[in-house]
Structure formats: structure tokens, C-alpha cells
């Protein structure tokens, strides 16, 4: 169907049918409507009638090819105009084959592999009948107390933007109509959901528009520039107005300024929640605000379906607003080819073939291997061949390694770290003991762990948070490892043996009680279906770890938010004079995080030569070339992530102490060198001025190159205008 045909279809719709198109419900409403024809349970509570369900536009959270086919067929058999349903779900880091959590994917700095993971997730879920995924989540984060940091790629706007694009490419491919192995993507949560006060989920977000535009908006924009089909609003307020009813944000920035003409969906119940926020007296007012703001689909509450018809009839809402919204939804259905092929990719046979197939598990393995970050290594890793190893801790044999939002992933299918380790080590060299539960240690568990540890040359602790301790609704104020595990570390440490720790968690942790105690620390995050295999291979040295942090690890929660691209203040702390009082510092903790953005070790070492610039000046027409020679000075082949940061020394508004502007990953054999070159353009030096103007200023800049955001070499250049 072309646009005129869709408009003609719209003209045939009654107001009630149009408004029902804007309603999204879970599948059990359809099952209810299909059964007795009675209005029961949640439908009755919500004031939703059977005819509303029978004309609703989309379904949330249903998957499984046969189930989707059944619902679509039964729906279409009752549909007056034959408009097919859209099926949407949260395919966040894999469908059945689960990939590492997005924060871990970020730490791979490998956007091509991230794209591949999204393509795999799309292929599996499209076969299971899904049309749209509620991903990528690209909210920028600076507060590890917030449980949803696990869903994002981190604290940097540039890197988040690259990943946003990669995920959209992977999910959507080039042609949603032809390529039924792909999904439409829905970038979320617009906007700034990642900045809730105190890290408490759903909490207030309050920031200047300049900050919003400079730091938080770029990744959403990047997803849209890549052609992302949908946008989901966020639960939080932005400048005092809930994002779901925020005209300036959705109608203004998103639609008018950025030209986005795809579908905007509310988050779960976020239209109705405007009343709890205190931005609407009742559902009717909430519906009024949301439709005016440009929100097309209402997820799981009935404000639109119950109140929009009357709001139109009373003249308060122009029917043109409803028409716009419906047309956008019809266009998405058309873009996915649903009018010609309402079952699209849903195919039970294909589902059996592709879900969790060997090829997909291999991609998950590769990504897990690249996402692990070696945080410390005083020589105990990789494990010495022939050494007796005691693997101790609640994650030694835990299946809880998929992480939150693991869709239809099956925990029991996940490769636990103990199994491949046992398979790959000689008989008799590995002992496994849980040591404690997630939060508690019994005397018996402790005894068994100590006995295993006594007989070993090296102890490997497998510690962490259970998956429900992060994710939505998973905020914490104390981000240390749970008490029982800290006790376990202490007890095992008392034996005085070499000790490595592998961490499974969904956020940067306060590593008190483990970082200093262990001789090596490997951050494995929630590594997904093949996580155990990848970790075993890293521990045994078959894989050289190459992950780099994309979120700073704080010294303690008291330092939060702590992030690398902060401002300098008028009284920065001079590291040589930490005793000075009247400078910006804590008296009980350093300013620096424990581990900075970009940080990660390898089993080999890299040396950086001098940073050289193509000149001392650049112009808008003549970019600057920055180069550095990197050499593998160790004994193993390894991948180094060479990072380029820039600081604008003085701006109209103060500028961050450094900002990532580029990076390159190079694989080098022992003794091998490579010259890495970056091009710095004037465009990369632009920022939002006090009047929100986005431009660069002539003047002095510093450029930093190194293996992370802290350990860099520096040069200076000037931006000059040619005339
Ligand atoms: C989450 C969204 C998710 C939606 C649908 C909400 O609670 O905030 O990220 O897409 O549920 O499952």
C-alpha cells in the first residue's frame, strides 16, 4: 500500500477504531476477548471493552511463532478493515540466544560485533513472530546505583551513539519489508531516563537544556539518523514535565527539530502515571497531554481509548492529531509488509531451526569473550598450566548469568563457568565449592570452601550480584558485594594463597573487600548464554582479554556520580598537593574513580610512542591528523583499544576535562608495532553554547591519546578560522 491508500484506509475508520489503533495490550487481553466473549479480569478493571481489544493496534510481549499466528489470525477474522496487529517485545540483548548485557557489550568497544548480535536477536525473534523490539536502550548513565545501567552501553555520548547506530543497523537491516529476518527498532527511553536523582528508578530528572542536548540527546539522535522506526518515551520528568506529556521534547525536539515521523510509544502505563506525577488530574487530562505531545501508542493503560473520543467530540483535541498518530502506525505496518503478509516471519519450523543454534551461540561466545574486562592482574592470570585450582563462590556453578531482560533465554541452557573449566583442565586439578549463597554464608559452606582452597595452588572466586539486583526496579544504595561474599573473601584470603576474582554483576560495583584482597580481578558482567565458556578460556589464557570499561568504577557510592568527562571547577585538586583544604575534593576519598572510563588490562603489555600532530593549528577546512605508534611489548598477541580525547581549554561555557572523540582497536603480535592515526575535524570540536548554539570556538585545545581516559600523553593545538 502506498500513502494515498493508507490515507484512504484511515478515512474508512470510525473515531473509535482510530483510537483503538493507538492502544497496546498484552496478549492475554486477546486471549480473554477470544474466549467467552465476556469482559472479565483486567479488561473490566481497566474499562476496556471487547470491541476495543478487537480493534487495538498492537500486542506487547507475546512471542512464539504459533502463538503469534493464532492471535493474528483470530484478530483478523474479526477485523472489519483487515488491519493486522503489530507484535512488539523487549528483545534487549538476545532472544533465546542471550548475549552479554548491553553494558558489557559496550565494554567490547566492538560495534561490528554488537551489530551482529542485534542481527542474530532479530532473526530469532522475527521467526518467533515479533515485529518490533523495544531496543536499543541508549540512556546515558553516570550513577551505578541505578539498576538499569546494565541496559545501556555506558557514560559516554560518543560511544553510546556509535552503539546506538550499530544496534539499529543490526535489528533493522536495510529493508524491513523484504528482509523478514529483521525487526523494527524502538530507541528508548526518550529522554534522559538514565539520570534519575539519587539513582532511584523512575525518579526526577532535572537538568539544563544545554546539558540535555550536549550529553543525553546525542545517542537517541544517532539511532534516528540510522533510521530507527520508533521511539519510546521515558517514565521521568524532564524540566518538570513527564516525558510522556512533554510537548517541547516529543513534538518540539523530536518531531519538528529532528524531523522524526515514525511512531512514538509511551512506556508501560506512563500516560496514566502523569496523574501520580501531578501533571494531570485524571486519565482524561493525561490523554490530552500525551496526544498533544505527539505520543502515538499508549502502552497498557486505557487513557486514550476511553477519553480521546470524547476529547475530540468536545473540540478539545483536534481529530487531526489522532489521524496523524494512526497514519504513523499504519505506515509502520506497511513498512514491515504486514498488509500483504500479516504473519511476516512467524514460522514454527524456522523457529526450531534458528533459535539457540550453534552459529548464534558462537556469536554470543565471541561477544562474551570481548566484553570481559581485566581490572587487575598481579600475575596470577592466566592460570598456570598444571596448577591446582579451587573455584569458589556462588557463581562457580550458577546459571544466573544471563542478566535482566533475557527474553525467552533459558537459564538452564547457559554455560556455567565451572563446567568448561572442568572440561578443559586435567582431571584432579579443579575443585569447586559454592562457599556461600548470594548474601549469606553457612558454617558448612565456609568449611567446604576452605577445604577446597587449602588443597589448591590458586583460588578463583566467582562472585557477584544476582541478576534481580540490577535491571528495572533494581536500584541499590550500597553497591558493594553482598555481605556473605565479602566474608567469604576474607576467610579465603586468610590462607594467604594467590587469588583471582571473577565478577558477575549488572553495574559498576564498589569493590571494597575484593579489589585489594584479590591478586587479579576479571569483570565478566552478566555474560549471556556462552559466558562460562568465554570466561574459562580467558582464565586459561586461550583468550587474551581486551574489554575496556565504558562506565567508571567508583571508589565508593559516596563518590557517585563520578565520570570521566566532568568539569574542572575553579579549584581543581592538584594531585601533588592533596593536603590543600580549599580545593574541590573529599577529605576521606580521592576524586578519581577506582577505575576510569576506558580502562582494561591485557595479558600482554603495550607501549605508546610520542603523540604527533600534523601541525600546531587546524582550520575548519584543514583537519588535524593525530598519530601514535603502539607496540606490543609483551609475550602474547593482544588487542589494544587506542583512545583519543580532546579538551577545549576555554569555552563560552565550561568544557569537560576531556571527551572521547575517537578510538581504534589494533591487534598486535608480540614485538609488533602499528601507527594509529586519527583525523580531528572542526565538527568534532563543536558544543552547545550558553544560547544553545552548536558551534566551535577558535582557540587552544588539548589532545590526549592513551589506553584509557586517565593514562594519556598530551599535545596542544589551535583551531583557527582561515579568514
Ligand atoms: C520498561 C521498558 C519496556 C516496557 C515494556 C517498561 O517497564 O521501562 O523499557 O520496554 O516496560 O516491557
Automatic annotation (TrEMBL):
Catalyses: Hydrolysis of terminal, non-reducing beta-D-glucosyl residues with release of beta-D-glucose
Positions of the Fibronectin type III-like domain = 640-709
Check the record and name the InterPro entries matching this protein. Answer: Cellulose_Degrad_GH3 (IPR051915), Fn3-like (IPR026891), GH (IPR017853), Glyco_hydro_3_AS (IPR019800), Glyco_hydro_3_C (IPR002772), Glyco_hydro_3_C_sf (IPR036881), Glyco_hydro_3_N (IPR001764), Glyco_hydro_3_N_sf (IPR036962)
Enzyme Commission number(s) from the entry: 3.2.1.21
The answer on whether this UniProt entry bears the keyword Cell membrane reads no
- Which Pfam families does UniProt cross-reference here? Fn3-like, Glyco_hydro_3, Glyco_hydro_3_C
Q: Which keywords label this protein? A: Glycosidase, Hydrolase, Signal
Q: Say which family it is in.
A: Belongs to the glycosyl hydrolase 3 family.
Q: What is the official name of this protein in its record?
A: beta-glucosidase
Organism (species): Paenibacillus melissococcoides
